[in-house]
Amino acid sequence: MSKVRLSVKLLIGFLSVAMIVLIVGLFGIKGEMEMNTHLDTISQESLPAITQLNRLNFERLQIRAQTYEVKALPIWSPELGKELEQLARQREASWRNIEDSLAKYEVLPHNKVERTVYEAFLAEYKIWRASYEKLDSLVDRMSQTSGADEYAPLFSEYSKIIEDTFLLSDRVGVLIESMVALKNQGATAQLAASHKAGSTLMMINGIGILVGLILSGGLGVFITRDTLRQLGDEPARVVEVVNRIAGGDLASEIKVRRGDETSLLAAISRMASDVKNLLGEVSSASDQVATAATQLASTSEQTREQVQVGQSETDQVATAMNEMLAAVEEVARHAASAASAAQDTDRETEAGGVVVNQAIAGIESLAMEVEEAGKVIERLSDDSKEIGAVLDVIRGVAEQTNLLALNAAIEAARAGEQGRGFAVVAAEVRTLASRTQSSIQDIQGKIERVQNGSMGAVRVMEKGQAMARESVDQAQKAGVTLQTISASITSISDMNRQIASAADEQTAVAEEINRNIHNISATVDQTSEGSEQIAASSDQLSRLSMQLQERVDRFKI
User: Fold this and answer.
1) pTM of the model
2) Boundaries of each Methyl-accepting transducer domain copy (predicted)?
3) Structural domains in the chain?
4) Count of helix runs (H) and strand runs (E) in the chain
5) Secondary structure (DSSP) of 390-447
6) Of the candidates 184, 264, 181, 204, which has an alpha carbon nearest to the alpha carbon of residue 27?
7) pLDDT of 266-278, one tens digit each?
8) Pair 46, 190: CB distance under 8 Å
């Protein structure tokens, strides 16, 4: 038992007391549950059953009293019908209350004996209820009579039957009282069982309290003695020794009682001796740490200066890389712009080629039209010449006609009066020939002008045709030149794309170099910070060494 830890012993003691409390509590809960069960049985079974049976018996007595009230009316009167009807309504209400009580009683739990008595009651109840059906019929007939002659025989018959119904009612009342007695017995038994459970609970609680007191007292004494043995002395003395050691006094001797080598006080004594030896070693080590901290501070200062130089050079390289990256990006942008412009020019050149081809086709079509117009004008000139020949013929005919008309006029003049009509005709023919000749001359002038104009138009058409052929040749040369320019622009666009691609690759490489330089710069910064932290740690270590030495000097060794 001496090797068992104090915490375990305390835990065993408290658990023992807690177990007793738990056992007592469990028995108390069990007894309480039994008492509640018995009381629930009384409140939920016995008392509701007794209540319904009492209500049933009360309604039985009410029906009996109503029956007597009818018997107390032997003489007919005009108001008798209303009184009987009121009594009939009261009896119907009583029967409904009885049926309601029986339904509520039926659903309650019953033991075997109670069930047997209840079945006997139901048999008697049916007989009793049947006998009252005849009485109720007589009362109904009596309420409807109109005179004493009709009322008297019905009342006589009613008086004879009620004696039998009273006997049946008494038998039903006896059975109701028997059922009430059985329910009272059950309630009494449940109440007695509840009292018994309460008495048992009180006895168990008393025993548990007594055992708990004895066990608590014994465990208290045992744990106190064992605790003092493990401490080695009274707690006040142990605290005094610990405070003295905490104050730095390790030179004072700690007295330990014989046989308490395993106590806390003996362990404190061994600890004080070990701490005294440890402080001597710590004092020596503190001097060595102070020397090393001074050397480390000097080395970290040199490292920090070198890191600052490297950081400055790295910043310069990073600046140069940023400038180069900006230049490369500018080249890439210009190359991309040139490629875009070349592509636009190529598209415009292709559009110009299409326009030139369309112009060539239009000029060729125009040349063909001009040539065709020249042919038409030449045909017009030929037709004009033919018309001139025809006019010459007509002119000759007109001259001959004029001569013939002149001759006819001469002959008519010779003929005198007989030739006057012929002379008129000849004069008209002469006039017509003269007008024809004049028209022919006019037509001849116009035809000559048309011929002169057509010859000029033919010359113009020939010149336009030559110029159209020359324009076609120049347009074809322009189309060939545009194709050459388009090929050159395509080649320039390809070279611009290659330049842009190379610039992009150079930009990516420059960005990668720039990132590496930034990483190097960050690493240098971290190294610089680390050097500063090392220097600060060295200073702090030196201060801590001095403080440690001061702390060690506080102890009395």
Assistant:
1) 0.35
2) 285-521
3) 6-231 (1.20.120.1730), 312-524 (1.10.287.950)
4) 8, 0
5) HHHHHHHHHHHHHHHHHHHHHHHHHHGGGGHHHHHHHHHHHHHHHHHHHHHHHHHHHH
6) 204
7) 777 777 677 767 7
8) yes
